[in-house]
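Board notes (copied after class):
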Amino acid sequence: MLPNERTTRDVVAAAPGVVEGLIVAPDRESARPLVDFLRAEGVNVQVVNAVELGFEEALLHRPNVVIIDERAAWICAKGSKPTPELTFSP
């Protein structure tokens, strides 16, 4: 920092009052440890069980934190199959 530069509280970004989180997990039981941890840290958490639902939720509600479990399912349109570039392999 140059000698004539100062950091004051009024130029520092304030922390958000409410932190929203989104977890995409295959089921609620696998998400429970993360939900418990995030809630203990004061984060409002929502859980969905499919990747597409997670994307939709993220676009609608703009969470601050998104955690995606790679085991979560992809939902496909009727009669379609997941494309290889959209599937995850552990």
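Comment from the instructor: The CA atoms of residues 35 and 45 lie 6 Å apart. Helices lie at 28-40, 51-61.
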